[in-house]
Write a structure and sequence with these properties.
This protein is α/β, with parallel strands linked by helices. It contains 14 helices and twelve strands. The strands form two sheets. The protein has a seven-stranded mixed beta sheet, sandwiched between helices.
Length: 319
């Protein structure tokens, strides 16, 4: 083979090399991470997954974190920042963050870590072939609403009315409420939808729920945790959410996919995409392991005696 022909073939082959190989020769892969809440525990668990594929912070991987700190209206601007930084992939955790990322770019691959009901909210076409530039993990949070009602019935056998706290601006809300109402028929519980807008007086809303006979609350995972936890304790209302961080923050219970499913398992998607896979062809993964976390300190503060069977069944009891 002539030298000139060899160079042409070599150049054509290099163009087809996986991204990560080329990136190692020029620069580290650059990820953008878009979060609804704070970096931890996402950062720690996600990095555990990345290290399994040989990625080292500052060597062959650089991550730009952007967090809305619970203020969802900040997400569009933060997503635009990551696009302007020309990141190779955006990893977005929770439905509002994934939506903001998708609105910001149709070209940069987006990994959900995770998102609730991504098909129902229009983020992907199907779980098996998502299409477009979005793939990753489904939180299956809507489907867990029925389990949340069962837990409320178990821990509060006398409960009659449950409020579903939801965000009217979140596309996931429709799936969230639909599943709760469908599951309520089997438990015999009355459901009261409570929409928490950004300008509403939470103190008044909680006082009205307490005086109106609400016994417990199912809290949409992306709602701000600290004020809800504080007001629920003040008005002696039991709470459950599909986010482990809710129980950590002082909520009574959480039932959700494990942190490994929610955060660490986003790493294989990042690795595959960096090596040339297209998001459109990577099936979306649903959680396989679920964790029940009970905050016993909160239960005692509310005067709730948690059944022994629940305590022994719980994956973790916070005391």
């Amino acid at each position: 083979m002539r030298r000139r022909d060899f160079i042409v073939v070599l150049a054509g082959s290099a163009a087809a090399w996986p991204f990560v190989v080329r990136a190692q020769q020029t620069r580290p892969a650059k990820l953008g991470v878009l979060l609804v809440e704070k970096r931890e525990p996402f950062s720690r668990v996600f990095w555990e997954g990345l290290r399994e594929f040989g990625y080292i912070d500052g060597q062959n991987m650089q991550i730009e974190y952007r967090s809305a700190e619970g203020k969802l209206d900040r997400l569009p601007a933060l997503a635009a920042e990551l696009v302007d930084l020309k990141v190779d992939i955006i990893v977005a955790s929770e439905t509002p963050a994934v939506q903001a990322a998708k609105r910001a770019t149709t070209e940069i691959p987006i990994v959900m870590a995770p998102s609730g009901d991504p098909v129902g909210t229009g983020l992907i076409s199907s779980l098996s072939r998502p299409g477009g530039n979005v793939t990753g993990l489904s939180a299956a949070t809507a489907e867990l609403a029925g389990k949340s009602l069962e837990l409320i019935r178990e821990i509060l056998p006398g409960a009659r009315r449950v409020a579903a706290l939801a965000d009217p601006a979140n596309a996931f809300t429709k799936s969230f409420l639909t599943q709760i109402h469908a599951s309520a028929k089997a438990t015999g519980l009355e459901i009261q939808d409570v929409m928490l807008g950004a300008t509403q007086d939470l103190e008044t809303i909680f006082a009205e729920m307490a005086s109106g006979g609400v016994d417990a609350l199912i809290v949409q995972p992306t709602l701000p945790r600290p004020p809800i936890v504080a007001l629920a304790r003040k008005h002696r209302l039991a709470t459950v959410s599909g986010n482990r961080a809710f129980a950590d923050a002082g909520g009574l219970m959480s039932y959700a996919g494990s942190l490994a499913d929610r955060y660490r398992n986003a790493a294989p998607y990042v690795d595959k995409i960096l090596k040339g896979a297209k998001p459109a062809d990577l099936p979306v993964q649903q959680p396989t392991k679920f964790e029940l976390v009970i905050n016993l300190k909160t239960a005692k503060a509310l005067g709730i005696a948690v059944p022994h069977a629940m305590l022994t069944r719980a994956d973790e009891v916070l005391e």
